[in-house]
Specification:
binds flavin mononucleotide; 2 domains; 3-stranded antiparallel beta sheet; globular
Length: 356
């Protein structure tokens, strides 16, 4: 499908999606991008169902443009190794004490919101687009989306994953290259094996699959959006580029650090959440280089959440999860609507330059 075709299908003007970024995409950001003609996405992976409904209502209150809600697909119930939890808490609390932060871990009432309840809230909110990472939705859930005419985007990090999304009835697949910031969407492979660069990934997926592709990973300007289109993508999904918008709720110290980020410091990190994610290697990561013994996502994520909040409040970016893609230093702090306009201006300029 052409970029114009997908934009038309989604009811947007530009082949540009602001990535769902759990914890960093408040309604003001989502609405600003959508109102500017892109597709704003609410990263709702950490939100309880009522918060999803509330934030969706806020987005609708700020404009009537199409927007997306993004969720992480997780099992509703899972076993937790409480011995490993106790050990991890000791390590984390000792680190906080050494670093002079008064905060300590505590046992949360729940490790993560229940996916099936989040999904029900998403259906009730009825955004134009629903996107999913970390796994597949089932046939009943697919039907629920179809009944409400919600466009389905699945996230894949390999062609094999993309194919399973095609089989699951996705309307488009977001191909997440190794460059991408934030959590890896990988669900069929060891994440270390699924670090495929976006150029390779798009070309492979284009040859193998007949479904609209969305490119994600390291795209920071309009030329990047055009490059992805030339390689077969119908739209580009940018996360890091939007992190320094004033509407984005990322901590100010995180935004500052992105400006100075060195690409060789942008690493794949397990230590904050128990799941591979790309971000800045810092003191926390150096102190706890491996995922704390046997603690998977979302358990470790829930344990470190209050520590990360305290680190942000104390402006301790060295103890904060500063997720970002490999081209983070190319961020351009400016209001989201201006960024969308700038990206599309650059896109048109690059297109003209190629044609001349
Ligand atoms: C801070 C941050 C949080 C993210 N959270 C999510 C998320 O909640 N859901 C999701 O599907 N992708 C998430 N991603 C990944 C993006 O969808 C996308 O793959 C990535 O941002 C693209 O790479 P880029 O950051 O270099 O633009 C996140 C990325 C970042 C930087």
């Amino acid at each position: 499908m052409t970029a114009a075709g997908l934009a038309q299908r989604l009811g947007i003007e530009h082949p540009l999606i602001q990535a769902p970024m759990a914890g960093s995409t408040p309604p003001a950001l989502v609405a600003a991008v959508s109102n500017a003609g892109g597709l704003g996405s609410l990263g709702a992976g950490y939100l309880e169902p009522q918060a999803i409904l509330d934030q969706a209502a806020q987005i609708r209150g700020l404009g009537d443009r199409p927007y997306a809600i993004g969720l992480f697909v997780l099992p509703d119930d899972f076993d937790v190794d409480m011995t490993a939890v106790a050990k991890a808490r000791e390590q984390l609390d000792a680190l906080m004490a050494r670093e002079g932060l008064a905060v300590r871990t505590s046992l949360p009432t729940r490790w993560a919101p229940r996916f099936s309840d989040q999904f029900a809230a998403l259906c009730e909110a009825r955004p134009a687009v629903a996107s999913f990472a970390f796994g597949l939705i089932d046939a009943t859930q697919r039907q629920e989306l179809r009944r409400r005419e919600i466009f389905l985007i699945g996230t894949a990090t390999t062609v094999a994953e993309a194919r399973t999304w095609v089989d699951a009835g996705a309307d488009a697949v977001c191909m997440q290259g190794a460059e991408a910031g934030g959590h890896r969407g990988t669900f069929l492979h060891d994440p270390a094996d699924a670090m495929i660069g976006l150029f390779a990934l798009l070309a492979l997926a284009r040859r193998a699959l007949d479904i609209p592709l969305i490119a994600a990973g390291g795209i920071m300007d309009g030329a990047g959006v055009l490059a992805a289109e030339i390689l077969g993508a119908s739209a580009s999904q940018l996360g890091t580029a939007f992190l320094t918008c004033p509407e984005c709720s990322a901590a100010e110290v995180w935004k500052q650090d992105l400006l100075e980020a060195k690409e060789h410091q942008v690493a794949t990190i397990n230590s904050f959440s128990g799941r591979a994610a790309r971000g800045l290697r810092n003191r926390f990561v150096e102190a706890l280089p491996q995922a704390l013994e046997g603690l998977p996502y979302p358990v470790l994520n829930a344990l470190t959440a209050p520590l990360r909040r305290a680190a942000a409040a104390a402006r301790r970016s060295d103890l904060l999860s500063e997720w970002c893609g490999q081209a983070a230093a190319l961020v351009r702090p400016q209001p989201a609507a201006e960024l969308v306009a700038r990206l599309m201006y650059e896109y048109r300029l690059a297109k003209r330059a190629l044609a001349s």
